[in-house]
Design the sequence.
């Protein structure tokens, strides 16, 4: 099965994209953010209300070009999902490439594929928050989840 992946062009430097992924997660993904995401082995949790969270460990950082998170714990407590912990053990890989006039950002979520029950819901979420990340980097104001 193919893992979920998405590539977008962003009118921002690779350095700014990297900073958004390591220092500014609450400004584009979820304001309900605890922990730290700027060093290898840092652990952070993002929440979407009381029933959805993801806890991740930073596995790899390559300045201005790569960020890798490993999902250590997760709950998507929605009644339509039988398996509400499918993100546990998955890996999120962000690859950043400097281009003329901006950057290419490639996201791969290893373990998020069509066999996963939350695939449609989760890929829709990724599209929403990647768009928020792009908006944050290009305008200074993203659309993160707000409590």
Sequence:
């Amino acid at each position: 099965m193919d893992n979920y992946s998405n590539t977008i062009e962003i009118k921002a430097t690779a350095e700014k994209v990297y900073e958004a992924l390591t220092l500014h997660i609450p400004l584009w993904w979820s304001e309900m953010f605890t922990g730290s995401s700027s060093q290898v082995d840092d652990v952070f949790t993002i929440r979407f209300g009381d029933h959805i969270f993801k806890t991740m460990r930073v596995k790899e950082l390559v300045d201005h070009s790569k960020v890798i998170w490993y999902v250590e714990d997760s709950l998507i407590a929605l009644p339509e999902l039988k398996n509400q912990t499918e993100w546990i053990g998955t890996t999120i890989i962000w690859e950043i490439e400097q281009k003329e006039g901006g950057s290419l950002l490639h996201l791969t979520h290893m373990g998020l594929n069509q066999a996963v029950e939350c695939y449609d819901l989760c890929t829709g979420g990724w599209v929403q928050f990647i768009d928020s990340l792009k908006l944050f980097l290009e305008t200074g104001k993203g659309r993160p989840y707000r409590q």
User: Anything to note?
Assistant: Residues 74 and 87 are 6 Å apart (CA to CA). The helical segments are 14-22, 119-139. The beta strands are 4-10, 32-35, 43-47, 52-62, 66-76, 91-99, 102-110.
